[in-house]
Design goal:
Length: 99
């Protein structure tokens, strides 16, 4: 089972320090609005991009509701990456999403 963080704690963490955020939604969803500073790596092509991730760093994975990011967390943690699922996803983000 992967680690997870609730939206309230995640939101406050993003305000306190710079963290690595990966949005695993498809590109068109990401372009419609995303959490500030999130990098888009769609779940559908995550196997291709994981080589760009540093296993020594912690990554916060987010999607629309938390389901796809949970799948991405399971996949990446199985590969030895340090990942945290953001519960509630972008639909729970309290501010206006960046475009």
């Amino acid at each position: 089972m992967s680690k997870s963080i609730n939206m309230n704690d995640f939101y406050h963490l993003t305000k306190q320090k710079e963290i690595k955020i990966i949005d695993v939604r498809e590109a068109y969803e990401y372009q419609a609005g995303h959490v500030p500073n999130a990098k888009n790596l769609p779940l559908s092509s995550l196997g291709t991009y994981r080589i760009d991730l540093n296993p020594e760093e912690e990554y916060y994975l987010i999607c629309q509701s938390g389901a796809r990011s949970e799948n991405a967390c399971a996949f990446l943690s199985g590969q030895g990456y340090n990942v945290v699922n953001v519960l509630g996803g972008t639909s729970a983000w309290p501010d206006k999403l960046t475009q």
